[in-house]
Amino acid sequence: MRTFRTKILLGYGASLLLIIVVLSWAVVLILRLGRASESILRENYQSIQAAENMIDAAERQDSATLLILLGYEPQGASEFRENETLFLQWLGRAKDNITIPGEKEIIYTLEKAYARYLIEISNLQLLYRSDRLKAANAYHEVVLPLFRSIRDTCIKLRDLNHETMYATSNRANKISVQAVFSISVIGGASVLLVIVFSLFLSHLISRPVTELKEAALQVAQGNYDVKVPVRGSDELALLATQFNLMVEKLKQFHDMNIGRIIAEKRKSEAIIRSVDDGIAVVDDNFLITNLNPAAAKIFGVFPEDSLEKHILEVLRDEKLFGFLKETLASGQPPHLEEGENILTIKTGEAARHYQVSMVPMRTPSGVIPGVVLLLRDITRLRELDRLKSEFVMTASHELRTPLTSINMAVNLLRESAETKLTDQERALLEACHEDVQRLRALVNDLLDLSKIEAGKVELAFEPVQPRFLCDQALSVIKAQADSKGIELTLGVPQDLPEVTADPHKIVWVLVNLLANALRYTNAGGHISLRGERVGNQIHLSVTDDGEGIPFDLQPRIFEKFVQVKPSDSSGGSGLGLAICKEIVKAHRGAIWLESLPGKGSTFTFTLPVAA
Hints:
Largest sheet: 5 strands, antiparallel
Strand content: 5-15%
């Protein structure tokens, strides 16, 4: 069985084989060309060099012969012998380098002529000693023709090698042209073969992959009837087989679960439609994917017409849209301050109020595909809260006058009839006085709270140093702390920037928080007042190491009439923290609690830095 890897290796092996063939043929041609060049140097150049040197030696011998005839016999004889040695040496080299046809006969003729030439030179020298005139005639008639014959024979040897060298050079040029042509032809043919084979191999490899890709796209679009053809028995064929099995199982799973999914979807839609609160579901592009009738009624639209529309087309509130974007980005419900989670929609003169909640949807893989927007109608609760506030204000006003009268009467009795009363009657009168004072404080707190909630309390804002506010509050509470043996610590830097606040109201808030801390801190405890800058706000905190606040009361600690009973059973009206909250809200700040039961509490509120 040929595997996918084997096919690839065979394909590239064939290409490699073609390259090896081309390279081998190129090497053969280069070697032939090299041998031709070597033949020129070895067979011809040495013979030409020998012929040239023999010509030169023969001419020098002829010159030496003339020196002898001119009377310079010793010099001429010496030069003749030297050149004779050179001639014979080069003649020997020429005989050793006979490589071309005709060269042997020329050298044989040359050798015979030169031997005869040497004999005639010897005869000439003997004749010169006896008769110089005859010697001169012998030179011209015998020696000179022999010399010319030797020289012509050497020239003939040289020309023969020249012609052979030229022919060899032409043959080398032909070999080089043939090499270039044959390498070009074979190389071009090899390139064409490699291209054709590569195209065929790429098609062979890519066709099943392309078929798998197209089949996967169809499966992704919901077509589970697609089949990939199986060819051969390699890895791609096995992959195609497994892909077909996977698609078949997906089809079975789809057929088995599609009905259940549709039923669950309809059930979810029925539940959403039946909920009285408004529910809107938006995807990660802020398009509405579901809207129940209650939400459609709130927005004044039809549910069917609102699907796939942008949420801002039905919810025209940029602030809530910003919270929606924050929820999608973080995957967590947004942190909404009190009042920010209220959506008010006016219809004519009437207005309805809805409490908004945002819950991000999360898949098992952690993806956030959208957000569920819940709108709870709290119009009736807001109306009840308004009526309660009006009732409290009215009742406070009505109680203030009789309480003033009762207080005056009790004080008059304490001043004028104290000596006439028994101890029991005097104790009852003192208890009545304390209750009247408590009721007056309660009525005053209720009136203050009602005015603040109604926005009827005018605040005198001015730039003020946070350290000054804290010093004022500590001066009010210091005597009570000393009497109870509680240590007060101030941790507010002098260089904190000024805040925009009503000094009297903020000092009242600080005094109230410090008084609460004193009330719930045992003797020998510690209370600290600290301040720091965070961004464009100043955070002021009151921390004690007292009893702390139970977890069940902490979410409601700033509501009206909620209080933690101290150990000595003496407490306030339960309105102090509610008034603190309203004052801080009027200053565009926030107040919150951090507490662990048995380990103390920290109340922190913020004030804006002065511009």
